[in-house]
Amino acid sequence: MAQAPATRVRTGTSGVLRRLRNWIDDVARRSPARLTLLVFAAIIAVVTALLSLPIATAANERAPFADALFNAVSAVCVTGLVTVDTATYWSFFGQVVLLVAIKIGGLGVMTLASILGLAVSRRIGLTQKMLAASETKTSGLGEVGTLVRAVIIASLCIEAVLTIVLVPRFLALGESIGDALWHGIFMSLSIFNNAGFVNLEYGLGPFVGDWWFCLPLIIGTAIGAIGFPIILDVARSLRSRRRRRPWREWTLHTKLSISTYLILAVGTVAIFAAFEWSNPGTLGPLAIHERVLASLVQGVNPRSSGLATLDVGEMREGTWFLNDALMFVGGGSASTAGGIKVSTFAILVLAIVAEARGDRDIEAFGRRIGSTTVRLAVSVAFLGATLVGIGTFLMLAVTQFSLSQVLFEVISAAATVGLSTGITPDLPDPAKYILSALMFFGRTGYMAIAAALALRQRRRVIRMPNERPIVG
Amino acid sequence: MAQAPATRVRTGTSGVLRRLRNWIDDVARRSPARLTLLVFAAIIAVVTALLSLPIATAANERAPFADALFNAVSAVCVTGLVTVDTATYWSFFGQVVLLVAIKIGGLGVMTLASILGLAVSRRIGLTQKMLAASETKTSGLGEVGTLVRAVIIASLCIEAVLTIVLVPRFLALGESIGDALWHGIFMSLSIFNNAGFVNLEYGLGPFVGDWWFCLPLIIGTAIGAIGFPIILDVARSLRSRRRRRPWREWTLHTKLSISTYLILAVGTVAIFAAFEWSNPGTLGPLAIHERVLASLVQGVNPRSSGLATLDVGEMREGTWFLNDALMFVGGGSASTAGGIKVSTFAILVLAIVAEARGDRDIEAFGRRIGSTTVRLAVSVAFLGATLVGIGTFLMLAVTQFSLSQVLFEVISAAATVGLSTGITPDLPDPAKYILSALMFFGRTGYMAIAAALALRQRRRVIRMPNERPIVG
Ligand SMILES: [K+]
Ligand SMILES: [K+]
Fold first, then answer.
1. Shortest CA distance to B193 belongs to which of B325, B75, B93, B46?
2. A10 — contact with chain B (CB < 8 Å)?
3. What chain B residue is nearest to A401 in terms of C-alpha separation?
4. What spacing in Å lies between the alpha carbon of A417 and ligand 1's midpoint?
5. Domain ranges of chain B
6. Rounded to the nearest 10 degrees, how much is the dihedral formed by the CA atoms of A224, A226, A227, A232?
């Protein structure tokens, strides 16, 4: 008699699980993009609920819904825009919730969907394999399990190294072991995942000339922003026999992304330093070596750590506009960075160079880039611009801030950067919802949205006759 | 004895002419784009010199160089941004110079280059034919002479009709026959060539509710902005036998451009009316029928007449931003309008729709659009965005105006629109030179610049192996 209900419950549970699994399989098969959005939205809902608990705030009071949602989205989308001060507004529990949200967001929603699929069905089905492959963007399907493991192990290792370097820095500042550990762990994850969250009551300002803190910040951010496919590719080439010139074995994607990233970073540092060198609100009052370090940090900031040691609000309007462009470009594909991605930007530039030269093919590093890739790059860039345009238009309508401030905030959200001219805490609720939507769309990817909205995947057999309209 | 010097002079002249012809032929053969820029720059130099004469100003004083250059570029590039009031600052002679500059600019630099070639060499050589074909963008080379004639005759006819309609309007206002004629002719050319210049001392404000003036303005602007290839295509279809459904014979370019133009115009009118309906600085104080008419004028304004019956400076910041996007898109190809062109915009949208749907081909109106066309569209849009970005960055550096005002001014110049939030007369000289460069590059075409800069036209025989980088 005690057996019967237990069996029934077990049957009931497995029935629910089976139905959930079937439903996920079904959605995944019909539209992987839609599954991405659903999973992401579900995680945000859970984090918002947890942040809405009174114990999540330092004052032990229920956070307003708009703030709980905004900061949940910001953490899961590893953006770093905050309407409240992370260090003082949230309790330790609240900060733990944010940190877990950052870790989940950083691992990427597609990897997560694959892990979820594993947990539910205790096997990686073909659809899950395809999902994971499309997120980490390797061409083969066989190594998905290995890849997910590699992603998790690599990220944990790098975060551990960062923690080991940073904890002594906080201890050296006279913090207790508990505080130093918590600050070190939180900041390490925030740095590697390009999350832009800061749980230090004193902020990052004191570290503006601190090489011990800023060098790990720069390196950790850059590794996180370049993307897992490139980390794995580089690691593979370093392990191979040809040790003297490992870059010869790199894929076109790795070569293209790293070179573009470096060019943009060097350019950013130079232009930023030139523009802000004598600005009394930013670099002006600092010593020379501090100005250099602050400019180096600024080189990785726009793509897309969001961890600023200088006051962005004090920078010149021209610097803001330069950052707008850099944030829009963003970091590497399948990384913790946002934006249209450096490879997308590089392909667009190469397409124009080829067009101007009159070349038939688009070439880079001795390889040809096909027209379907160009079309995808166009779509990503165009949808990104549309997202920013509509977001700016709506934000101008619901706030009283200037276009400079609004455009910066919108691109920062859409490219999941997390820098702000300082207007975030003063935004009205409708503006918080608009930015939340931008962060969500920015992280889940413009193409996922577009694919999710499309009702059909068509392969026409009959091709229409070709006709060339006039361009430009 | 009197014969000898005359012969010598004649020989000398024909020698100079021959060398000039050979030089032009040579430049045209090696780089048509470079010839375009040279011819355009030469025309601007002449107009600047004429405007620098004391008799060009009403006060009979020499205009400052920056103003003479700026207004010369604005007229030749049919933009309409002015640093001084056209009606009161310039003399009748100065206004005639501006009107001739507008007419030459409107006919298009390539058509002009072809005519120049005719005048110099008394024949249309193959290079000139190719030049003219590439400007008016018809595929055949045989009908260039006919085409140039058609362009000139069509523009003169439309300008004559506009003049016949507008002169009585000025007479009805109590103006003298001389004033009414001059105002009618100047405004007709300004309207059809989307030049944006106004030679009325009282401005366009009094006409905000005047259907007699605004309806010709709307229709004339729209015809001028849609482009000669489409005007000729429509005219051809109307003359043909199938009179009931003439649009069936239209080319893909005509269908694509007209439909995109109409969608954008209707959308602009609706959103503008919604945004400004109760704005006390713009539509607010007007009667309902006046608000409707003013909104209709605003529907054609951003692409790219630049003739505003309302005060742009009084519009909401959101309306400015909407106009930024519309001005960037611009009008039809090979027209008097600027921007990246509606067909370019349509191709980009179609490419994204195809990408989202998973289609192999980009299709419109039962025709397939090839990947080379997409690549060209990408190049034009990307170079346009880069031009606007660099221009905005520089303008922020040399002026104290807000990003809203600067971005509006820069896009207005780069897309040769001529609308302004009112900052043009207050710009410092460096800003005037920056805007002049933007108008010049905006009118001569981004691709011409890119092609001119390219050192070689390469057709590689060996193709590199294909490799697909990750995008987005
Ligand atoms: K971030
Ligand atoms: K214009």
1. B75
2. no
3. B317
4. 4
5. 15-453
6. -100
